[in-house]
Amino acid sequence: MSHLDREGLQAPEPIRISMGIRAAALIAVLIGAGAFFWALRSGHETTAWSAYLIGAFYALGLGVFGIMWMSILYLAKGVWSVSMRRIPEAMAGWLLPGCILVVLVAVGGHHLYHWTDAAAVAIDELLQHKEPFLNATTFNVLMTVSFIVWLAFAFLMLRNSRKQDVSGRASLSHANIRLSAMFVVLFAITFSIVSYYLLMSLEAHWFSTIYVVLTFTDLLQTGTAFVAVVVSVLIIRGRLLDFVNENHLHSLVKMMFATTGFWAYIYFCQFLLIWYTNIPEETAHFVARWENGWLPYLIALPILKFVVPFIVLIPREAKRKPLRVLPVAVLILFAQFWELFVLVSPATGHGGHMTHGHAPWIELAVTGGFIGLFVLVFVWSLGRNNAVPIKDPRIGECLHYHQ
After folding, report:
1. How far apart are the C-alpha atoms of 153 and 361, rounded to whole Å?
2. Burial (Cβ within 10 Å: 0-12, 13-18, ≥19) of residue 42
3. Residues 52 and 36: beta-carbon distance below 8 Å
4. Among 12, 14, 370, 402, whose CB has the most other CB atoms within 10 angstroms?
């Protein structure tokens, strides 16, 4: 008889998300699609495609975080996370549609990426120097290979997890640990490629060796915040009470708190190194965000993404009460949109056609549409499996975490 059987616990039913949340997500999708096509038809193609890029990258980050988070916790033996593992698994369900939607960025690439303009490359020595890497063929090949790697590991790891729900074999957990070890190495390479092409190459003349680390911290902070939102809502609604308690929530929010500090450290490092070296090839990034009305948006970013979450989450009790965790996690999710807006929109103009600071209504609506679509896929994935991996060999230790 298993440890769980002796305690009389039964596997909970699959989690069903309310129709209200599904309806809100669907409305967000319709509003986002409407805003995107309105911007296209109104002659604001650059705004439309920059909004599309922001939304597509935002949602893709949530999807790949699911596999990344599972891999980190498999390797770290984070037993506290076992009972909430279905949440990142459901997030990974977005990877296939998310990768397809990101590929469509290439349709509007000539509105976003200066290096796609053959005439501009012909008269620009630096773009010619980078052309072996910054060209459409290499872009398509490397992006496709990266997405295939993500999808393959997601398929294998999720398949093992679902098989374990039936057989309870511990060997399937060991198999996922081995897959996790391989994935984190390949992820470091492929995520660097995806981040460089989709975001950093918007400013093809810019040089930074820390940019990908910054986007990785974004991934960790935002993904953890999304898990915290879902877990908090489930606790508030009385779901999974036998499997997720305040100790589990505390560990989850400590991770969110840590990634908040990590983001601030990396962001400040990038700024400080660029500031005191004062090399034109590096300072152009921040100069573009100090001019043309962008400075208030830049100043607001660390306040939204670090100062407020950090101060609110310092007390121990703030990490253990879902009603206190939920608004902070939602703020972090909004702050990720704000950061992508600050990264993408000022970079879409070139020369005398620099983009000026503006209220991000179109960008917010389109990103909301992507998030709504992500939520619909997430809800569908979450409801297809048991709410808790009840036959994971570490589930007993997880349930007695800090007891």
Report:
1. 36
2. exposed
3. yes
4. 370
In 83-240, alpha helices (H): 86-92, 95-103, 109-112, 118-122, 125-130, 136-167, 170-198, 211-236
**Could you tell me which residues come within 8 angstroms of residue 235 by beta carbon, excluding any fewer than 6 positions away?**
241, 244, 249, 322
Domain range list for the chain = 16-399
Helix (H, G, I), strand (E, B) or coil at 93: coil
Token pair, residue 249, equals 């929530």
Residue reference for tokens 């977005």: 94
Q: What pTM did the predictor assign?
A: 0.95
Query: What's the pLDDT tens digit per position in 233-255?
Result: 999 988 887 889 899 999 999 99
Calculate what percentage of the chain has a pLDDT beyond 70. 96
Q: For 80-131, what is each residue's pLDDT tens digit?
A: 999 999 999 999 999 999 999 999 999 999 899 989 988 889 998 989 999 9
- Over the stretch 343-401, which tens digit does the pLDDT of each residue have? 999 998 765 567 888 999 999 999 999 999 999 999 999 988 888 998 899 998 898 88
